[in-house]
Amino acid sequence: MATIKVVSLDMEGTLVTLTYSHKVWHEGIPDLYARKVGIGFREAKRLVQQQYDDVGEARPEWYDINYWFTRFGLSDPQRLLEDYGRELAIYPEVKATLQRLSKDYCLVVASNSARDFLQVMTKAVGNSFKTVFSAISDGGQLKTEGFFLRICRETGVTPAEVVHVGDHLEYDFHAPRRAGLHAFHLDRSQKTSGDSVVKDLEEFEERLNELSAISTQRSGD
Ligand SMILES: [Mg+2]
Q1: Number of separate domains in the chain
Q2: Residue 61 belongs to some domain of the structure
Q3: Structural domain containing residue 97
Q4: pLDDT tens readout for residues 36-73
Q5: What is the 130 CA–ligand 1 centroid distance (Å)?
Q6: Which CATH number characterizes residue 113's domain?
Q7: Do 69 and 132 fall into the same domain?
Q8: Does residue 145 sit in the same domain as residue 207?
Q9: Residue 72's closest CA among 105, 100, 49, 96?
């Protein structure tokens, strides 16, 4: 069994809460749009939502804030993203856990969020990441088996040397496993349980250390 070298982490719902993105899309953008066209916030929110729904989350432009700013005739998405930085909330155990993990592993972010959102988020979480991979910005699609294989190639490791953790069952558990990575499903709600389910990053760290101990022992056999 290969030694674990890289820990890959999802961002939203794993390291930071969903509040930041949610507020940018459903408060910040409607607010700018309301002021731009001279209508009330509620009406703007309804119109904006209608257009989000028309595009739908299966299409890559749905995630692209520049696309929406152009579509709504707005300017300076970067400023909005930075203004809403105040809404960024990091889960309580994250910073200390990452600090410990960074001593033994190379840490990367593997996210479905767009790169301009990820820049604000990674800055808030801290600079412990070697590389930040955005499935949507780099490849125009959500996290797939191919995306995880690309992470391995670009990080210079084999899939068996990587452990991924995140809160989405398909994107953070099934997809990386199909690519041959180790994966843990983070369920902060604690509604599911099992060998590969963890409730927070501290529990993930424990399981990772167990896995590492086994793999080091075996590779020494
Ligand atoms: Mg997530």
Answers
A1: 2
A2: yes
A3: 6-17+90-220
A4: 999 999 999 999 999 999 999 888 888 899 999 999 99
A5: 19
A6: 3.40.50.1000
A7: no
A8: yes
A9: 49
Q: Is residue 1 in a domain?
A: no
Whole-number Å distance, alpha carbon 39 to ligand 1 midpoint, is 34
Which residues sit opposite 198 in a β-bridge? 186
The CA 37 to ligand 1 mean position distance, Å, reads 34
Q: How far is the CA of 215 from the centre of ligand 1 (A)?
A: 27
Structure tokens at 183: 């994966």
Q: How far is the CA of 218 from the centre of ligand 1 (A)?
A: 32
**Token pair listed for 201:** 């990053």
Cα 58 to averaged position of ligand 1 atoms, centre (Å): 16
pLDDT in tens, 109-146: 999 999 999 999 999 998 789 999 999 888 888 899 99
Instruction: Select from 184, 181, 178, 216 the least CA-distant residue to 1.
Output: 216
